[in-house]
Amino acid sequence: MPRTNKKPATITDVAIAAGMSIGTVSRYINGYEVKPANKERIERAIADLSFSPNALASGMKSADSRMVGLLVPDYDEFHAGLLGNLATTLAQEGLVTLTYCHESNSAVAKEAMRFFRTHRVRALIMSWPDADRNDITEMIAQGVQIVTYDNIIDFAGGDRVVVNNREASFKAVSELIRLGHTRIGAVTGDLRRWTAKERLAGWRDAFEAANIPAPEDLIFPCDWYRADGHRAMEHFWKMDTPPSAIFAANYQISLGILVFCQENDITLPDDLSLFSFDDVEAFHFSTPRVAAIGQPVHDIAQAIKARLLENNKAKRPATTPISVVDCAVHFRESIGPYRPKSV
Amino acid sequence: MPRTNKKPATITDVAIAAGMSIGTVSRYINGYEVKPANKERIERAIADLSFSPNALASGMKSADSRMVGLLVPDYDEFHAGLLGNLATTLAQEGLVTLTYCHESNSAVAKEAMRFFRTHRVRALIMSWPDADRNDITEMIAQGVQIVTYDNIIDFAGGDRVVVNNREASFKAVSELIRLGHTRIGAVTGDLRRWTAKERLAGWRDAFEAANIPAPEDLIFPCDWYRADGHRAMEHFWKMDTPPSAIFAANYQISLGILVFCQENDITLPDDLSLFSFDDVEAFHFSTPRVAAIGQPVHDIAQAIKARLLENNKAKRPATTPISVVDCAVHFRESIGPYRPKSV
DNA sequence: CTGTTAGCGCTTTCAG
DNA sequence: CTGAAAGCGCTAACAG
User: What is the pLDDT along chain A (343 residues), one digit of tens a residue?
Assistant: First the structure.
């Protein structure tokens, strides 16, 4: 049985059924005033035909797809949350969110750009600093708004939404210092990224504020993944004076650290204190629960939305090109007072 | 400074630059053969103009938006994974995935339907049994393919992709029985849902196979959330003979149970064994790690994709309207041998 | 293999 | 406030 294929009703069908011109129907649909009597007839016709306007056609004619693109590196907990919040909040404005995951792969990211361009997104939200310059330039020239989050990328005309990475990191590390730790490792993530630099700067700030020289030998530059956290611990644990506490620049790194601790019977916080950037569900159910800096994904989504609307409703340029969202710093049981290593 | 608004190049621009008709260019774009010399000129023109085809226009003309809708109840770990896998794998076929989250709210779900209809998705993927009948009927009539996952919903013409809920649950509960447990609680989730029924059926099957009467008093019907898991434990822990093991129908319920155990110093697996449906990251980092049935989100996405392509490439109806994907059953340290309660 | 042409469904002038 | 008409960028016949 071939699928029935009754084509959807068009605005013309509605106009005929309602006995008026498509212009009037179109205006009604788009929220302009029409004579009450006409309004009623249109509404009935729409219901009878169960008409729904064709977004493609209207987007094409009005040269506005009402779609925005979100380019993420990964569908991890943070990005899933961001996508969810964003898609929901933007839907309220009649905007559609298209996602693409680049997996930190340039070829895939290139493909994503092609995808977004093809779909004529009116804005592109991303944190990818290695985006092809030509694509970006082209998109900006065509009026596509570029919003970067969680990263500072130097595009002319790009809006930015970031969290207070440095300050939040400062608070976390300061707490570790207050607890008596001085050998505090920093597992930094990818230091080519602004985020990583800022988080490390917060680590340094904390030492400076405490008038203690920062233990530069405990900086472990790496990538953002579990394997990196694990490798960091392998490295640290071979040292003569290993760190008594660790500040990890994202949650995946922390998970790698936790795995290493499990494997090597390292007990938190007695043998090691751990403070993580990013707060995820796993941290609430581990023993002990992991102290963490939570990125308020809801607020980030709202800030992005604000930028999107601001830049499209009023035509004035944004007052400030950068929005800063504050993180919550959660002290939990994975951090404890410094205790000299028992021999 | 108003945004520059150089309009994107059109296929006509390309045709002019390449010195030929738009028909030829269109054919080249869509993968038909063109004379090599022309091909080369088209490619150069496209590069020069940095042209990208307008998906809206082509979708409109060809009456195929190449978009599919995914309606999820929540952006939890499972659905985020599903979305990620699906979006990625479908993008390879040139298909776009639009998401909408209904939050188990009928009004929002209704809005979602309007959204998907408006965007002329060629398929709708969902697990929502309370969808408005009219919307569904209308969409099916218009040739929209409906694929349900993780649920059996009785739509004429709907494709279904499910996991082997009953069998996997049977395996999990059987293991608990093998470990000596007989008082095994079932926290079922919403029993109006097929999934919940199947998982409970698996629980029953295990007792039957072991020739033990199923402890019907340990069935706790509820919803799917953390609070439900917590409430279940409150209930169980007041019993004269509480369960020595629990089978939880999803991960959120299990997290609620874990919280209760933390609060009441219940040690897994000594005081209680726990087996959960759904496998999430938190279960790998809790102490002990939680035994769980993992839904292979990658395979589910592939199965859905297969249905989508099958039903659209060849016009024949699917051989079987239902695909079953096998779950992995992970035995972990949250389950242990039955030990009579110490008094 | 290529050029020509007729729309897809809608918005948006422009006159009334 | 409404109707008529001109396309938006592209695809899909059709005739070469």
Answer: 344 567 889 999 999 999 999 999 999 998 888 888 889 999 999 999 999 999 999 988 888 899 999 999 888 889 999 999 999 999 888 899 999 999 888 988 999 999 999 999 999 999 887 888 888 888 888 889 999 998 777 666 678 899 999 999 999 999 999 999 999 999 999 999 899 999 999 999 999 999 999 999 999 999 999 999 999 999 999 999 999 999 999 999 999 999 999 999 999 999 999 999 999 999 999 989 999 999 999 999 999 999 998 866 544 455 557 889 999 999 999 999 998 875 4
Q: Give distance CA B30 / C1' D16 (Å).
A: 22
Radius of gyration, alpha carbons of chain B: 26
Q: Is the CB of A20 under 7 A from strand C?
A: no
* A57 CB contact with strand C at below 7 Å: yes
Distance CA A207, CA B339 (A): 51
Please give the structure tokens belonging to residue A266.
Answer: 């390292």
Contacts of A58 in chain B (CB under 8 A): none
Using CA coordinates, name the residue in chain A closest to B72. Answer: A84
Burial readout A178-190 (b: 16 or more C-beta within 10 A, e: otherwise): ebebbbbbbbbbb
Distance from CA of B110 to the nearest CA of A (A): 13
Classify domain A60-157 by CATH number: 3.40.50.2300
Rounded CA gap, A272 and A291, in Å?
A: 12
Query: Is strand D less than 7 A from the beta carbon of A23?
Result: yes
Nearest residue of chain B to residue A10 (CA atoms):
B118
pLDDT at A26: 93
Task: Please list, in sequence order, all residues whose beta carbon lies within 8 angstroms of the beta carbon of residue B24, skipping any fewer than 6 positions away.
Answer: B15, B34, B38, B42
More confident of the two residues B197 and A6? B197
For residue B272, say whether its CB is under 7 Å from any atom of strand D: no
| pLDDT value of residue B169 | 98
CB contact under 8 A, B7 and A60: no
Of A8, A57, A63, the CB nearest to B142: A8
Residue of B nearest to A134 (CA): B50
Cα–Cα dist B280/A114, whole Å: 33
Domain boundaries, chain B: 60-157, 165-295
**Beta-carbon count within 10 A of A168 CB:** 21
Strand C close to B61 by CB, under 7 A? yes
Collapsed DSSP state (helix, strand, coil) of residue B181: coil
Q: Which residues pair with A163 in a beta bridge?
A: A325
A-chain residues within 8 Å CB-CB of B285? 255, 258, 282-283, 285-286
Domains B60-157 and B165-295 belong to one CATH topology: yes
Whole-number Å distance between alpha carbons of B286 and B259: 11
> Quick one: fold of A165-295?
Rossmann fold (3.40.50)
